[in-house]
Amino acid sequence: xxxKKKINENLIDLKKNLxxxxxxxxxxxxxxxxxxxxxxxxxxxxxxxxxxxYEDTIELIKITDENTNSDLHLELENELKVIEKEANNxxxxxxxxxxxxxxxxxxxxxxxxxxxxxxxxxxxxxxxxSRWSESKNFKLxxxxxxxxEEAGLKSVTLKIDGEKAYGWLKLENGIxxxxxxxxxxxxxxxxxxxxxxxxxxxxxxxxxxxxxxxDLKIDTFRASGAGGQxxxxxxxxxxxxxxxxxxxxxxxNDRSQHRNKSTAMDMLKSKLYELELAKEEEENKKTRLQxxxxxxxxxxxxxxxxxxxxxxxxxxxxxxxxxxxxLNGNLDKLLESQLIALx
Length: 343
Prior knowledge:
This protein is of the alpha+beta class. 43% of the residues lie in helices and 22% in strands. It is flat, with a radius of gyration of 24 Å. The protein starts with a helix and ends with a helix.
């Protein structure tokens, strides 16, 4: 499961680089190498501790008579399960070692086919990711949202700050399908709704994304709230179009046009960075989920609430019966299965 030899080789290389006094002139690289050295050292220590605990527990189980000391035997078996869980958590961590996996994440949710029901579905997904973020002690901030006329959200953009936030959520890209008895249908009929989710790594100072002013089209407009009502008397909302890639970002979260523009530029940089990562992965012949039409047949995951309850990931084939638990943010089993399938 763990390539200790490779980790040790990386540690030796890092130590050699840090011992070279010339490298200390590059503060950012040195700081990055020191952080990596500390991370790998602690990771290797965790592997050794888990391995020793596992071997000690197995040895105790062997010498414990199950019939004469059943309580101790049961306690040791439970301890073994805890150790196996710790080993699995460490294994999952190794699957988030990509170029951008350690970064924060920008996550967009857009309503698709299904009208007001789909807009409500966007709000449900926002709640799901919010609850998941809380469970990880991650910080979540809504950057932009387009409120539906009747209910829900047409779209929402949020930023999640946390350790390996992008690594956890990078495979959530795709179409999410909901099947339920609609609370908006007076005849209580079953409806199918769709929403798209797209994730981008947040760009920090360690990433240099060059954007030319001539490649930008910047529009200002008044921020709007529920029912399309203007919530600001000035044109504080910003929409930026990157002409070469046709990427569009917008922000209306702040009353300040300057701050909205700064946030929108950060969003654009993140999307351009994600585009670069996708090109690199394509060159390495790694599969990447592409933006599909938000419609029937392109979904990556289904959440069925009627006539039965089930969440099914169509890529990994993992099925969970407790839909409410998943919608309350218990996503780790689904996220982990995606990472394992990609490895």
